[in-house]
């Protein structure tokens, strides 16, 4: 069999899953979850191999390293809650967001790349289970499509609550 997987062959369409974590320094569980995802994806587990064979994973494990280093709870080195600056991130004041957003825009504009899924890992100060926020779509098919992953996660991870997920929408 060829050594290159289908999604990495020259000229092939890449199906990308983009994962970011730790935009808020105090959300330390997001680092543990992201590390667990990375450990699984590079493991010899047969499902991890299938995922690697069919998807390209782009992972930014810490969007706020300065804030983490300083011991901040929510803000960056310059006092910004980075999660509130995705709309127009400054390359000077929010360099990690700017870089990630530029990469997402480049992927969106590249006909050979299909951004299949974006996961932004956070932690919550009072919720006890894992849960997800999602977009609100008028189109029922898009709304149902985004519910597939949380439903699968609920069936396979005892610490994930689909009920908590639904109650937040």
TrEMBL record:
The entry's keywords: Carboxypeptidase, Hydrolase, Protease
Gene: Agbl4_0
GO MF annotations, alphabetized: metallocarboxypeptidase activity; zinc ion binding
One of the Pfam families matching this protein, by short name: Peptidase_M14
InterPro entries: Cytosolic_carboxypeptidase (IPR050821), Peptidase_M14 (IPR000834)
GO aspect biological process, one term: proteolysis
Domain annotation Peptidase M14: ranges: 1-169
Family: Belongs to the peptidase M14 family.
Required cofactor names: Zn(2+)
Species for this entry: Mesembrinibis cayennensis
Protein name: CBPC6 carboxypeptidase
